[in-house]
Design brief:
401 residues; Rossmann fold; five-stranded parallel β-sheet; four-stranded parallel β-sheet; 14 strands; 17% strand; globular
């Protein structure tokens, strides 16, 4: 066809004189290029978060981080020469709502890929749906070990599992001659998992477990538990729960007038909102963290992420935000390595990939459980979260009352 057009031009040039030559050939080659209709379509990555309800405090930072990653990856030209669109719905912190929304994302909206929701309970609820349809999922908001004990093929953890959350803290406590512990926990799967592992590790360290008690999720007045812990003679109190439980136990300790030598709470103290809510009553509280915005944590891109997050949202990012952003980075790396959106190929790559993100190293075992990442222990000191363990990465020494 190009040859026939060239012959026409040579034989009868006046017919083409009204078109500049370069523009004419641009149109000519455009007509002869193969059509790629899907090139303009974005890669759609779906998911849900508890933007309202009991998980909102930890879900909103995650949404912000997903959108920040979306912005950053699109500024680089997208993935596979296509823009990325992150579609996150509000599951209202409810497992049944989340299941319905994941079915919608898969069956009706036919998204290309998925991010996992927040919390062990909601993640556990949606996994049968995502597994059935063969969607690989990076889990960056749930840590209960049991998720990886059920034989699922398409799940991959971003951070260290819940059974390791308290190890560093307990090691520090023993080294500072603290050995009597009270463990209280909500009755949801995540909290139960941490409580059991805390008891196991405490006994391995030779501690005396003087109180081990659960309470119904959603109970706000925890004074009765604070009194029981006080009466037990414990010098350490560990609260296993989410944001509300960490705050509510802090308030109960204040009302009862008792402060153990060390108070460790999961999830809540990792957020700036914990200190904003409690002020001086947050001082000296210990917790776990998957990442902190400190210069002594030399992970690639971490400093830039902190700076851009603060610029965009006017608040310091927590590990809840950082792990969500890391999920985007790791998924991006897997898709680029696959060179396509073939979900089985992406699944196989995620199962063996060893890479770095802003929170550190990624690598999983045969069940998909994270094995390369490690837990930090933090403590609120003078209005700032300090890393107190491991010692080689610490920004301050731990303070025991």
């Amino acid at each position: 066809m190009i040859g026939r057009w060239r012959e026409t031009i040579e034989r009868d040039p006046p017919r083409c004189a009204s078109l500049p030559t370069a523009f004419f050939f641009l149109l000519l080659f455009a007509f002869n290029m193969p059509m790629q209709a899907d090139a303009a379509e974005p890669i759609r990555i779906g998911g849900t978060l508890g933007l309202t309800g009991k998980y909102s405090a930890t879900s909103i930072p995650r949404l912000r981080a997903f959108k920040l990653w979306e912005r950053d990856v699109n500024r680089k030209g997208g993935i596979l020469n296509r823009k990325v669109q992150v579609v996150i719905y509000d599951d209202k912190s409810d497992p049944e709502t989340a299941v319905s929304l994941y079915k919608r994302l898969i069956q009706e909206e036919k998204v290309d890929l998925l991010f996992a929701p927040y919390s062990t309970a909601i993640t556990e609820a949606v996994l049968p749906v995502t597994e059935k349809h063969g969607y690989p999922m990076l889990i960056s908001g749930a840590g209960a070990d049991k998720l990886w004990h059920k034989g699922y093929r398409y799940i991959f953890g971003i951070f260290a599992p819940a059974s390791k959350f308290v190890v560093g803290f307990l090691e520090m406590a023993v080294m500072n001659d603290l050995g009597k512990i009270a463990i209280v926990h909500a009755d949801d799967p995540f909290s139960v998992n941490i409580a059991k592992s805390t008891k196991t590790w405490a006994e391995r360290f030779g501690m005396k477990v003087l109180l081990y008690e659960k309470f119904k999720k959603g109970t706000r007045d925890l004074d009765f538990l604070a009194e029981k812990a006080r009466s037990s003679g414990a010098d350490i109190l560990v609260m296993c729960g989410h944001f509300n439980e960490a705050v509510d136990m802090s308030l109960s300790l204040k009302r009862t007038g008792w402060r153990p030598r060390a108070y460790f709470a999961t999830v809540g103290p990792g957020l700036q909102a914990f200190y904003d809510r409690l002020g001086a009553d947050a001082e000296y509280v210990f917790s776990h963290s998957q990442w902190e915005p400190h210069e002594r944590l030399p992970f690639p891109g971490s400093e830039r992420f902190t700076r851009e997050y603060m610029k965009e949202y006017k608040v310091m990012p927590s590990f809840h935000a950082a792990t969500a952003y890391a999920a985007g980075q790791i998924l991006e790396a897997a898709v680029r390595k696959a060179g396509s959106l073939d979900r089985e190929m992406i699944r196989n790559i995620l199962s063996v990939m060893d890479t770095m993100s802003i929170i550190g190293r990624y690598g999983v075992d045969r069940t998909g459980m994270q094995t390369k990442h490690f837990i930090l222990t933090i403590q609120w000191q003078r209005g700032r979260k300090e890393v107190v363990w491991p010692e080689k990465l610490s920004t301050a020494r731990p303070i025991f009352r």
